[in-house]
Amino acid sequence: MFFDSWHGLLRVIVVGTLAYLGLVAWLRATGKRTVSKWNAFDLIVTIALGSTLATILLTEEVALVEGVLGMGLLIMLQYAISWTSVRSGWVRRAVKNAPTLLLREGRPCVDALRKQRVTEGELRAAVRAAGHATFEEIDAVVLETDGNFSVITRGWEGARCAMSDVEGVEDRAGVPGVR
Asked: What sign for the dihedral angle of Cα 141, 144, 148, 154?
């Protein structure tokens, strides 16, 4: 059917606008970290928020206040998990993956690439995007928890503080899986 009533169209416009403003208000109230670079857990919350917003817009059985409360609940649960993960290592490990070393001293870490489902072509693209032409120019490439690649060109072996949480750093070059 193409058209039911003007009432339905007006409801979508009014409720949609108010639900959207409610979502923006919730996101602003919970701070920048709520919408910063997301991990898999945050993606799930985002999809759930989109589904909730669509339900509010298109289902007359769901009242605006109930829908906005539902979105607020999802956002507050995400906020609580983020807040707790900053303060508790086991919560952080439960919701976030560790960054993974994919290239070390110019050599791909084949086992890590395979485990993370990253091709050498993607590794080359990350190196090129960082402005380099060869793996040999690179000390390390790290797959970050948000899916981005960090390319490190020099000096990380001596000062490991930024690399201390990277999976695979403790391994020595020459072990199986590093070529």
From this structure: negative
What is the Cβ-side half-sphere exposure of residue 98, based on CA atoms within 13 angstroms? 16
Beta bridge partners of 140: 104, 152
Question: What was the pLDDT predicted at 179?
Answer: 41
- Tell me the domain boundaries of the chain: 6-94, 100-163
How confident is the model over 19-76, as pLDDT tens digits?
A: 888 888 887 777 665 655 566 677 778 888 889 989 988 888 888 899 889 888 988 8
The CATH topology of domain 100-163 is CRO Repressor (3.30.240)
pTM value is 0.62
CB 168 within 8 A of CB 118: no
Give me the DSSP letters along 51-92. HHHHHHHH-TTS-HHHHHHHHHHHHHHHHHHHHHHHH-HHHH
C-beta of residue 101 within 8 angstroms of C-beta of residue 167: yes
- Percent composition of the chain: helix, strand, coil (DSSP 3-state, to 5): 55, 10, 35
Distance CA 49, CA 54 (A): 9
Instruction: Answer whether 101's CB lies under 8 Å from 165's CB.
Output: no
The Cα–Cα gap between 154 and 163 comes to: 13
